[in-house]
Every structure is written in structure tokens, then in C-alpha cells.
Design a protein that fits this description.
Layout: E1 7-16, E2 23-28, E3 32-38, E4 45-54, E5 58-60, E6 64-67, E7 71-79, E8 90-96, H1 102-109, E9 113-119, E10 130-131, E11 136-140
Parallel strand pairs: 1-9, 8-10
Antiparallel strand pairs: 1-4, 2-3, 2-7, 4-5, 6-7, 7-8, 9-11
């Protein structure tokens, strides 16, 4: 798809209640941690990124991963995967983006920030991993 048919949007991923001291990062490419950070006391972590959207919707960008013809997602790396070599964990969260409501994408194309809020701690008290359902998607200033 021609880049001229794609619209750049801003995305913010807010991870509430991350496990204190455990590093998280976005994933760029197959193995590169991007913007690693850890929460000291369980305060929320925020990741900002740009991506491109085309009709369909179709998603493009260095953090966009693909699975099959339609599934698109963003990985959030945890512990060792995020560059924290002494961590007890080496995991990833998978945040699906292919099923974001079209109305939200349209508002993001007009300049709003598409914000997804996730829980960073699993039911067992360890870092959340695997496919994570957002608590909420919204358009933020």
C-alpha cells in the first residue's frame, strides 16, 4: 500500500499497576527493546509511539507486528526481554490493535492521541503477559 494512502497517528499506551522494579519496553523489530522503563512504586508507565493507518483498517510502523492477514498488534517486552538481564521474567504482552473501533481511529487521524490503558500485573501478582485486553481505548489530548 502506498504511503500516501496512510495517515500518521499518535498512540499512547498506559500500563497501570506494573510490578515495581520490573523493566518494560516497546518492541521495535524482532529483538530490539525501545524506551525501557520501570516503575519504582507501581505508578503507571507511559509509552508514546507513532504509527500509520490506512483504510481497512491496516496498520504500519516499526512497532506494528503481524499475524495472519488481519491481526496486528504491538509487543511490550518485560524483564529480560526489555533489557533487564537480572530479572526473573522474560515475557511479552501482546496488545491487539486490529480491532480498535473505526470511530476512534478516525478521531485519531484528526489529531487526537489514541490511548490504550492496560493492567500491568496479572492475577498471580507477576507481570501480565500474553494477549492483554485493554481496560479502555479513548482519544486523549
Amino acid at each position: 500500500m502506498a504511503r500516501a494512502d496512510q495517515t500518521e497517528i499518535r498512540m499512547r499506551i498506559v500500563i497501570e499497576k506494573p510490578v515495581p522494579g520490573v523493566m518494560l519496553s516497546l518492541q521495535e523489530g524482532d529483538d530490539k527493546p525501545l524506551d525501557p522503563k520501570a516503575s519504582k512504586n507501581g505508578e503507571a508507565l507511559v509509552f508514546e509511539l507513532g504509527l500509520r493507518v490506512a483504510d481497512g483498517p491496516k496498520f504500519f510502523g516499526p512497532q506494528v507486528r503481524r499475524e495472519g492477514p488481519t491481526r496486528r498488534f504491538i509487543y511490550i517486552r518485560i524483564g529480560q526481554s526489555a533489557g533487564q538481564h537480572a530479572s526473573a521474567w522474560s515475557r511479552r504482552m501482546k496488545l491487539d490493535i486490529h480491532d480498535i473501533a473505526a470511530a476512534l481511529l478516525e478521531r485519531a487521524k484528526k489529531g487526537g492521541v489514541l490511548q490504550g490503558t492496560l493492567s500491568g500485573t496479572g492475577k498471580d501478582g507477576t507481570p501480565a503477559c500474553a494477549t492483554i485486553k485493554p481496560i479502555a481505548w479513548k482519544i486523549a489530548p
